Amino acid sequence: MPMTFAANDAAALPLTLLDSEALESWLEDQPERVARWVRGSGFEAKLGQALVIPGENGAPVAALAGYGDAKARARGRFHLAGAAGKLPEGVFRLEGDLDGAALEQEALGWLLGEYTFDRYAKANGNKAQLVAPAGVDAARLEAIAAGEKLTRDLINTPASDMGPVALEAACVDLAGQFGAEINAIRGEGLLEQNFPMIHAVGRASAQAPRLIDMTWGAAGPKLTLVGKGVCFDTGGLNLKPGSSMGLMKKDMGGAATVMGLARMIMALKLPLQLRVLIPAVENAVSGDSFRPGDILTSRKGLTVEINNTDAEGRLVLADALALGAEAEPDLMISMATLTGAARVAVGPDLSPYFSDDAGVVSALEDGAARVADPVWRMPFWTPYEKMIEPGIADLDNAPKGGFAGSITAALFLRRFAGETTRYTHFDIFGWNPTAAPGRPKGGVGMGARAVLEALPGMLGL
Length: 461
What we know:
single chain, alpha/beta, Leucine Aminopeptidase, subunit E, domain 1, Aminopeptidase, 2 domains, 9-stranded mixed β-sheet, 5-stranded mixed β-sheet, 16 helices, Leucine_aapep/pepB, manganese
């Protein structure tokens, strides 16, 4: 089912969104027949409840969706989407007292709830469609939903069909849709053009490692997005146990998320110069694998001691960040499924991010709240810099001790982002472990909508 609004259908059934505390007063204004039907059906306007109201001939004439109370709503998001899946096939027109950001959130949640991943098997999605509510920017919401669909599809696709070659092809397709320029440096070309750590991480795979570089827009502030594209992560010679390897198709979730965000930016024609950098590799095992104890020299010239080959994401991002910083962008943002430590700290719903820029932080926090894309600020805690300095090389890719894993990873990346670059890093999970309204189980974008909403404040658009 397309993640778009239905045509403005004159025959659309009215769908009333009801707060549980307003239900009785609403019933008092209804015909006795309707009030009896609603009460007899056990509808209490709780979150996720839906009820079709028949007319005198038995055909549906209206529907209700529960909106709960403020306390219940505070425990989740996209509440209308929870009811949408319980409605029958048809077109509905939303009625109620919502407006502003709350209305936009619920309308977007409906679209996001229409997502299904059916590449390999038939999947059943919501049958009900929604007419764009008056007062929302329907084109903007549809562009956001399309970007999120791209992200989810990329993450959900297994590595057998989403290796570095396929990820590059997806980038080429995206660039073609919006007239962006795209280039890729592959295999030994990475060494020739000084991307040694991307090459080292990906050289053991049957598919050559590569750096994908997409640019769009000719005027405005410069925004560079860098996404970790580890299409599958075995852990390398520090092999992951099977229980930890099962979801590693999602280790390119950072790349998928920046691609979804880039699609939103280009579809909305934001007045900026966009650059997307994706180091696309598979961290595989072969006779050519990089090893624990190796010392790699990065594009920036900093040397890195490899103490764990399973801490590979920061290595490929480092070379890409160094390239991005050379162009002196106005803002550079990296996104990666980088550390389990971040997931342990905040769970799968929140997007942890690192930034020392007060303007970025303020815009992100405000934007995240408006669009129901929660973020949580983590510290670039400079005193921990000594934890990533092993002595034998400039940097350690996997400090021992187990403390502050997400912070030390972010500090590692900051070393490559340039001292004068405004830099923000997201350490996301990229996966929804249990189905929720608007967020089916599986791959999910995190932080992209918050960044999109915050861009005017961050870049002065």
